[in-house]
Structures are given as structure tokens and as C-alpha cells.
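hey can u check if this looks right to u? its 213 residues, i copy pasted from the old doc so theres a chance i mangled smth
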Amino acid sequence: MFTMIPIPTTRYIYSMNLLDIPYRKEDDLKLIEYIDKLSKEHYPQTQSNVMSWRSEWNSHNVHREVMKCFLGDLFRVFTDDMIFPTEDGTEIYLADSWMSVQRKGDWIRRHAHFTYFHCFSFCYYLNMGKDSAPIRFHQYNLPEPSGRISDRMLDIYPSEGTLLIFDAENQHSVDNTIDDRFTVSGNIMFMPKDSSFNEESGYLYINDFFNEN
């Protein structure tokens, strides 16, 4: 079951631990080993807000074989209509995804993910030390009870195996980490199905994924 974490706006952050899913822990260890190997072998990283090693935006295509064990569980979460209902004619796509590792002292600058469609961002924690830096959500320009404008923050300390899902417009960051933190992140989009657009964009349509696996 998801836990809904209210924040001082109309949006929510959804949190769910996936380690109860059969073979999830074993698959996560394989992903950690794979990401660790790529980063240590200086596999080309993509520049972004992540001040550490990060794979390509379309890692669900480039690294499909190793990522598909996670993508299947991720898509099953989004097909639960009780949590993420879809309107008639609206389909679910994986817009982009990337693997990353933050080594000691690495950090993630404050940013948000903006798209033209209704979009949820996600971050899955393959590991998470108990003293590791939290993910920080910034709620800027919110009036305090006194009427003053402030920059409020919400820190969340996910445990290992946690899947966080949040509105793509929520600004977030991570301070310097104290250990090696491995994650898989990306954006899920809800939009009309258009196969030609899908093929040209590199987006992964949820039904195509299950049909080919």
C-alpha cells in the first residue's frame, strides 16, 4: 500500500516500499552491481542536475535488459487505477529514465521536471543508509500564517527499497551524501496514445512493454 505524504500545497508525495515483491531484493542487487560497474569503468555520463554519475535519459531503451526487472514492477504500480486513474483515451508512457550513483560528497541541485503533459516523477532507492542525506522538497513562495512569504522545505528519509512518486513540478534536491547511494529515476506521462509519436520519441508505452516481455 502507498503512504500519502501531505505537503503544504494541493499536491502529494506517494511512498511505497517494493521489497515485499518477490525477487525485488535480488534484482536490486544486480542493478547496484551494474550501475557500480558502469560508473567505475567511466561509462559516459549525462550532464544534469545530478552532481554525480548518471546514465542516459533513455536508459529504459539503452539498458533495457538490466532495467526491465524494475520497469515491470514500476508499471504495475501505475496500473492501479485506485491510485493513478486514467481517463478514457489516456495512456501511460515512461517518458525518460536514468540510473545514478551519488558517491560520498556528491549532491543534487534544486530542480523540477517540467513537461507538456500530466507527469509524475519517481525515484527508486536501491539502497539507503540510515544516516544518508534526505531528499528535500522545496515549497517556495508559500505564505506563512503571519502572512510573510517563505521558502519551506520538507525532508524525506526513504528506506532501502522505497519508491517515491511526486508531481513533476515539485522542486527537490539532495545535500552532500555520506555514502554510495544508488537510484533509478524518471518521469511517467499520461497522454493520448499515438503510436507514431511513441516510435519517434523513444517513450516506452506501458502495453508495448508488457507485450514484449
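Residues 93 and 112 are 19 Å apart (CA to CA).
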